[in-house]
Specification:
The protein is mainly α and 328 residues long. It has helices at residues 16-29, 41-48, 53-69, 86-95, 100-104, 107-116, 125-139, 153-170, 209-216, 238-246, 249-260, 266-292, 295-323; strands at residues 3-8, 34-39, 76-80, 145-148, 178-181. It has 13 helices and 5 strands.
Length: 328
């Protein structure tokens, strides 16, 4: 089977943006490919190096969400990045021949530095060089595909460039991983902005059905609908974009027509959305509550996943050391 690899930083419990933008797709991919999914705890240090204490607990919360959403440890290899030391070794070797200019032109580096630089000191090697670690994460498993959105293509192209440079300098070792483009849906938070932990506007997989409704009920809508009788435009309403993710096509047309003709109010619209959300998310949330009680079992799954991942990583590093004349 061809391999897929992806990872998530452990920033805490996952919200609908994480679920719709990545996790739901991961669950589907495990039925077609050999999938490696890892918690990118070393990557979290690039911005959280001053206070790493929460990373371990956040890592566990992320994996609980994965299992609740349907990732199956019998189908996918789930592990924590820092448990596989070979990632660090390959990162070191890659860093020796990766030109600085390749890293400085990375658009995400510039964007994150501008966005977070006011709050954190990001003039560090780790922050500049994290795409090299990312390349090591992917190439050490010789992944054929990496699920990404279009905005992440520059990252993957850098990985491909590093693979090409290694193969040219030392001999053929790494495939050039291909993007498996993922359509990233627009997932608004309860205040209309992009759903984000930092904005405190997120609906979490760990929420109860009651908490979901309490967040959904006051969610902002099309500002033209000040009264129930005022017509609106669905595409100008944040609630509509959640409808696109959860509401069946046939009823979606009813929602669009009802908004434009003011056939029903925003609360009725949100009730319809809530019902469809819970049809899909209710079982996920229930499974999450069950996994929350089985953290020891979650750790066992990660240990077994690390064992399987390490076997692959060690085999790759033996080949790398031989090609670079570092083999014992």
């Amino acid at each position: 089977m061809k391999r897929v690899l992806s990872g998530m930083r452990p920033t805490g419990k996952l919200h609908l943006g994480n679920y719709l933008g990545a996790l739901k797709n991961w669950v589907a991919l495990q039925n077609e490919y050999q999938c490696f999914y890892f918690v990118a705890d070393w990557h979290a240090l690039t911005t959280e190096y001053e206070d790493p204490k929460s990373i371990r607990e956040n890592s566990l919360e992320v994996v609980i969400d994965w299992l609740a959403a349907g990732l199956d440890p019998e189908k996918s290899i789930l592990f924590v990045q820092s448990w596989i030391k070979e990632h660090a070794e390959l990162h070191l070797l890659f860093s020796m021949f990766t030109p600085l200019s390749w890293l400085e032109r990375n658009p995400t580096y510039k964007e994150m530095k501008q966005e977070l630089g006011e709050y954190k000191e990001l003039a560090t090697y780790g922050f500049l060089g994290y795409p090299v670690l990312q390349a090591a994460d992917i190439l050490i498993y010789k992944a054929h595909y990496v699920p990404v959105g279009k905005d992440q293509l520059p990252h993957l192209e850098l990985t491909r460039e590093i693979a090409r440079r290694f193969n040219y300098l030392y001999g053929r070792c790494f495939p050039e991983p291909q993007p498996k483009l993922t359509e990233i849906p627009k997932v608004p938070g309860t205040d209309g902005r992009k759903m984000s932990k930092s904005y405190n506007n997120a609906i979490y997989l760990a929420d109860t059905p009651e908490e979901v409704w309490e967040k959904l009920r006051p969610m902002v809508t099309d500002t033209r609908r000040k009264r129930k009788t005022d017509p609106g435009e669905p595409q100008d309403c944040p609630v509509y974009y959640l409808h696109l993710a959860f509401t069946p096509e046939e009823e979606l047309r009813v929602v669009e027509d009802g908004c434009r003709k003011a056939a029903f109010g925003c609360i009725e619209c949100k009730k319809r959305l809530y019902n469809h959300m819970m049809e899909q998310l209710g079982p996920v949330m229930e499974r999450r509550r069950q996994w929350e009680k089985r953290k020891d079992e979650v750790m066992d799954i990660l240990k077994e996943g690390a064992k399987k991942a390490r076997e692959v990583a060690q085999a790759t590093m033996e080949e790398v050391r031989r090609l670079m004349a570092f083999a014992l």
